[in-house]
């Protein structure tokens, strides 16, 4: 009988390791506990020592280290692998936990959600069919019902967890398309060229991307003009709907935004819902960002969302959950049937099961295999409660108002609009400086700040000019943090002007 093969890493004369020892099961439970403790200790120690959101390392700085790793020669030793991971990843990670991370819609995470993450990763349930998830399915369904009740969608509402806002928007528009096809009849291919989706000029890019993926094309999305608070104008929406009718086009949905990515603006939901009802249109509300208002003292800002046919929520934005934790919700559970597909090996029509006794979430989802991400939110609500989450979100909303006051009173900056949620879009004013140099200075200020690692801010474009953006989602951030970041940005912009021969 031949002897077991030996790997490149095994010393001469040794037998190859039994890799079944790496499986997480009854035999390795003790080792799992030790390994997890080592990893947790390292991460906790790192977080305790983080003094800035990033190091400013570039891709060129980090690529050689990653590329030098020989993936064909395993380290074998978990401690050595964690040492390597610290060097390749933790040393230069971007830490959303730091109060001067003010870049994108990434929030610090709460401890109860991390408890849920550790459980769901280890058990590894897949939330597609009952025989893979059991209680996990019911927990997800209970959270969906809790959220639809908060929104006010009614007794027939339902939904499913997704990978994020983009997937939720895609599924919502898919349902709107198919509802229109069901109503209009005929061949879908004949209807697609006429179909149109209307959304605000500052709505999320995933709306256009979804329309393209659904066969309608990017050109099917009509951008509706906004007011000076970056909210969809109802009169402009009405005008576009009249134009569609006069041109023989077929509007299938209006996508209202409750918390635009750049401005945090909330479209006038009651007026939009009135127009959707008048024209028989599907109303989708992209509340990926603004869903935190459902547990906030500012809940009134979402008035009108209860009339939506579908809603996108991202718990990993304003509920302080680890990525990913999101859902798409519908007023009428039957709408979810548009994505149902019966596979003999998975959810066959003829296996004798019923949705009540064997609920299969795959019947509602674009995904098949799907993580039990709902558990993170479940643990958060069971430990902190909805009011606890809302209190954290309200703190960042209050901070944004303080930040706006700082910017509005500072002649070094021009701020676009008073915040509704927690983003601030502004620009280094630089009076007397040529526009192209001022543009360069604003771009440079953001990149120089990122390279320093002292803070992270975002960038965007307003009226074809580069602007800066603070996205405030950390309740630990303070007015002083904002003031210091603004001082750093102003100094970098002034340095750029001086170096390019401009005048201040």
How would you describe what is shown here?
The structure is a single chain. With 504 residues, this protein is an alpha/beta fold. It folds into 3 domains: 28-96, PLP-dependent transferase-like (Up-down Bundle); 127-383, 3-Layer(aba) Sandwich (Aspartate Aminotransferase, domain 2); 387-499, Aspartate Aminotransferase, domain 1 (Alpha-Beta Complex). The strands form 2 sheets. Strands 2-8-7-6-5-3-4 form a 7-stranded mixed beta sheet, sandwiched between helices. Strands 1-11-12-10-9 form a 5-stranded mixed beta sheet. Helix content is 42%, strand content 13%. The protein has helices at residues 29-49, 59-67, 78-88, 111-123, 130-133, 135-151, 165-184, 188-191, 205-213, 234-246, 269-279, 315-318, 374-383, 385-409, 435-452, 479-499, and strands spanning 101-102, 158-162, 195-200, 221-224, 250-257, 282-287, 310-314, 326-330, 413-415, 423-428, 456-462, 465-471. Strand 5 (250-257), helix 11 (269-279) and strand 6 form a beta-alpha-beta unit. Helix 4 (111-123) runs antiparallel to helix 13 (374-383). Mean pLDDT is 94; it is low at 1-6.
Concise description?
The chain is of the alpha/beta class. 42% of the residues lie in helices and 13% in strands. It has 3 domains: 28-96, PLP-dependent transferase-like (Up-down Bundle), CATH 1.20.1650; 127-383, Aspartate Aminotransferase, domain 2 (3-Layer(aba) Sandwich); 387-499, Aspartate Aminotransferase, domain 1.
């Amino acid at each position: 009988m031949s002897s077991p093969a030996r790997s490149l890493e095994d010393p001469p004369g040794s037998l190859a390791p039994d890799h079944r020892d790496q499986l997480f099961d009854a035999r390795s439970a003790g080792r799992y506990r030790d390994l997890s403790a080592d990893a947790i200790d390292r991460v906790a120690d790192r977080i305790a020592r983080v003094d800035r959101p990033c190091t400013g390392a570039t891709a060129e700085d980090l690529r050689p280290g990653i590329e030098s790793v020989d993936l064909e020669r395993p380290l074998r030793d978990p401690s050595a692998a964690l040492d390597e991971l610290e060097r390749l990843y933790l040393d230069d990670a971007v830490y959303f936990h730091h109060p001067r991370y003010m870049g994108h819609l990434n929030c610090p995470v709460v401890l109860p959600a991390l408890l849920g993450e550790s459980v769901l990763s280890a058990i590894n349930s897949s939330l597609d069919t009952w025989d893979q998830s059991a209680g996990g399915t019911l927990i997800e369904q209970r959270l969906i019902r809790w959220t639809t009740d908060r929104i006010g969608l009614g007794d027939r509402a339902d939904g499913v967890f997704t990978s994020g806002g983009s997937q939720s928007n895609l599924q919502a528009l898919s349902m709107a398309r198919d509802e229109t096809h069901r109503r209009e009849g005929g061949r879908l291919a004949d209807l697609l060229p006429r179909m149109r989706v209307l959304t605000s000029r500052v709505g999320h890019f995933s709306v256009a991307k979804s329309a393209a993926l659904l066969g309608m094309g990017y050109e099917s999305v009509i951008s509706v003009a906004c007011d000076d608070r970056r909210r969809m104008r109802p009169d402009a929406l009405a005008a576009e709907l009249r134009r569609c009718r006069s041109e023989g086009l077929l509007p299938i949905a209006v996508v209202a935004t409750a918390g635009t990515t750049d401005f945090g603006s909330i479209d006038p939901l009651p007026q939009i819902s009135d127009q959707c009802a008048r024209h028989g249109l599907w109303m989708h509300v992209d509340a990926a960002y603004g869903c935190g208002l459902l547990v906030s003292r500012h809940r009134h800002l979402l008035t009108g969302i209860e009339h939506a046919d579908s809603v996108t929520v991202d718990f990993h934005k304003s509920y302080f959950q680890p990525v990913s934790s999101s859902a798409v919700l519908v007023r009428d559970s039957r709408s979810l049937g548009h994505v149902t597909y019966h596979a003999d090996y998975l959810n066959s029509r003829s296996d004798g099961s019923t949705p009540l006794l064997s609920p299969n979430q795959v019947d509602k989802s674009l995904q098949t295999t799907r993580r039990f991400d709902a558990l993170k939110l479940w643990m958060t609500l069971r430990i902190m409660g909805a009011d606890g989450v809302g209190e954290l979100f309200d703190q960042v909303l209050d901070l944004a108002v303080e930040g706006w006051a700082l910017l509005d009173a500072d002649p070094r900056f021009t701020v676009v609009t008073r915040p509704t949620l927690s983003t601030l879009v502004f620009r280094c004013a630089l009076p007397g400086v040529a526009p192209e140099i001022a543009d360069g200075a604003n771009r440079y200020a953001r990149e120089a700040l990122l390279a320093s690692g002292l803070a992270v801010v975002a960038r965007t474009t307003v009226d074809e000019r580069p602007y800066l953006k603070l996205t405030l989602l950390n309740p630990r951030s303070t007015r002083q943090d904002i003031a210091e970041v603004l001082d750093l940005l102003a100094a970098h912009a002034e340095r750029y002007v001086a170096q390019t021969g401009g005048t201040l």
